[in-house]
Amino acid sequence: xxxxxxxxxxxxxxxxxxxxxxxxxxxxxxxxxxxxxxxxxxxxxxxxxxxxxxxxxxxxxxxxxxxxxxxxxxxxxxxxxxxxxxxxxxxxxxxxxxxxxxxxxxxxxxxxxxxxxxxxxxxxxxxxxxxxxxxxxxxxxxxxxxxxxxxxxxxxxxxxxxxxxxxxxxxxxxxxxxxxxxxxxxxxxxxxxxxxxxxxxxxxxxxxxxxxxxxxxxxxxxxxxxxxxxxxxxxxxxxxxxxxxxxxxxxxxxxxxxxxxxxxxxxxxxxxxxxxxxxxxxxxxxxxxxxxxxxxxxxxxxxxxxxxxxxxxxxxxxxxxxxxxxxxxxxxxxxxxxxxxxxxxxxxxxxxxxxxxxxxxxxxxxxxxxxxxxxxxxxxxxxxxxxxxxxxxxxxxxxxxxxxxxxxxxxxxxxxxxxxxxxxxxxxxxxxxxxxxxxxxxxxxxxxxxxxxxxxxxxxxxxxxxxxxxxxxxxxxxxxxxxxxxxxxxxxxxxxxxxxxxxxxxxxxxxxxxxxxxxxxxxxxxxxxxxxxxxxxxxxxxxxxxxxxxxxxxxxxxxxxxxxxxxxxxxxxxxxxxxxxxxxxxxxxxxxxxxxxxxxxxxxxxxxxxxxxxxxxxxxxxxxxxxxxxxxxxxxxxxxxxxxxxxxxxxxxxxxxxxxxxxxxxxxxxxxxxxxxxxxxxxxxxxxxxxxxxxxxxxxxxxxxxxxxxxxxxxxxxxxxxxxxxxxxxxxxxxxxxxxxxxxxxxxxxxxxxxxxxxxxxxxxxxxxxxxxxxxxxxxxxxxxxxxxxxxxxxxxxxxxxxxxxxxxxxxxxxxxxxxxxxxxxxxxxxxxxxxxxxxxxxxxxxxxxxxxxxxxxxxxxxxxxxxxxxxxxxxxxxxxxxxxxxxxxxxxxxxxxxxxxxxxxxxxxxxxxxxxxxxxxxxxxxxxxxxxxxxxxxxx
Length: 941
Hints:
Helix content: 25-40%
Low-confidence stretches: 1-29, 459-463, 935-941
């Protein structure tokens, strides 16, 4: 589950949920999500959006209750209760994930903010009945399945989640900002995590009261988005939810947005690599024109390289490595500027520069060009977000949020109209109204992590009045729940877009997959690169392509892209790199012209390179201060050996290797590797080859590579590790320890890869896998344990990642080692039911895995990268279906619990002795680069 700690929202008065049982769809809009709405007699509001492009349905259920509704002495309870909702129900007494995983569901999750709690999943269309059965069973039949053991286990998991979130760099910021920006007693004053004392005090009686008060159908909104029609949806929803009685109607007094009158400031010490300045204002609620206009202003101030603060702080004065501005929230909101201070710069200089730019905006207002670019960029962002039905930013999310917070599922239309009509004179007025005073400045400085004391119990934040809800009525039960969840008899077939091929006169192969649902085109130019290239070189070279090209310097390039609504970028994987464009159909020709400049004529300006270098080194230092990122980034180098050519193949280099890069290195890398005759251009979107090829020929057809072509050297041999090893990294004061255990496994091209993927899923690749069910669900020592292996053409790390409480490190290591040993070659190999469950889940989820252009492009990129046939996706589905138990067991035997490499990051004063006492191998204390403290680690295997 995800905790939405960054949403700043306030509950509103409950709306009349006894509205007409059916409302027709609203009129079409330029950027529309057509929907229909109806209300059950028991008050449940239902929104249905039909989208037939993929055989899936996103099921989102939102309850209008969050941490802002918690009574005194029970802070954190909304989040704790959200966890309990995954423990099972009266008619299915097992983990909620189980049936959904069996049918191939994706995006199974939940989040909590001060105003709402939402639950989500995306299921194959034939499994919609199952999802509705599961959601309705926990809405109507939960309490009998929650006992003291379940409460105690989830309480431990939540405590570990809280420690994990606090233990990362800047992890205390959100809680501190909430305390400082809102007065005691305000629903935003305490964090959604709440206090440890209050969590410990929660009782089963609290669980029952919370459920009966807030989890009724009349306090909920159900959104179905995808391959479902409204009449089908109505029949199913009435059958599964209609019998659930309404809870008491709850009305809330409106909560003040807490507009502040004066400036306040504070400093927070934390284990961070660089100082960070946060400047915030409490602003107008969502649903007001002021809020949407402030979103436009945020884009103008800090929406990227071409923004005012980006130009001033990052490019001109070089005071910060990056800066952002954002207006966000739900019903009460914040405007926030965040700047990462460049090493050696006094944070006060950053504060001064922000103030100068803010005052200039308040005095002069934005220019018309700035407003137009912001409007175009925001429109493009919205179009990209509504490509998906589910997830945390798709169409179901948009419709549910609009209905819950504004009482109108189509409120995004009003918001888009406000943005489209934004004018400089309007924006300067709203800026003066909300940003002219009342800010709070929080500066985080490197140092020892500050103690974070629990506050005294807050007063009730919001007053609630309950009434019986007599206008609501429940229907007779529509299903026999004693039969258990209704699994479908069949599943949708995989629908992968047809692949069309062409070639450009420059030698590039073009692959097109058509997608016409939204007016977007995604391009990804794929190039092979040497996995043994200098550490960080490929990443730096590809990243620099967008930092100025052709006639545009970095700022002009960013401004031009913004004006077109285009997103240009790059990515690097082991053995390959990609240059990407996501553009609007109506500006595609101009966007491709800019894309061609990026590919053909990057400027690699020294000033831009130095700025990128400083930013990249700051990011690497932040990774080193984040226990989980540090442990996972160290593992590949320790597995291969620090001097191995592939030691840095899975990362972005080191601070030292990035420092050593020179402009000539980038120029030569571009010449050698980013060449049209070795490239494959993958295009997914709203276009045809007949439209596309002339555009590509116009801008790229005469591009030619120069000089000799280097050989791509792939060494796919699997290095052997003769003995287990343990590497310890000290993180003084760490709130938790992070355990990573791993080994090298065969490349992705190995014929046993599919069997290994299923084997990994059984052991640790999902929430219901053995490792997570043990350390999280049974013991409560961790917020979550996961195992995985990355895609790569060379030997690749397989790893288990387990953040655990510090007093359980040794026991957790023993459990992980035992689980791997017994599974891979011991008395507990994969069972037939486990293999069937995880194998079938992988097959069934394929049908909904290619909803977005990005997902389709990524699949085609892998077809290119690993030289697979065009119908690989279909072949994979067929091969998975045919996997048997013996194949999965044989693949699992590649894991060797007696030859693991362990990385343990934590406070060694607490964890070193018990780890050494386990005797899991030679234990070596190393620094964040993997070097032995006082020397180098033993490289022998």
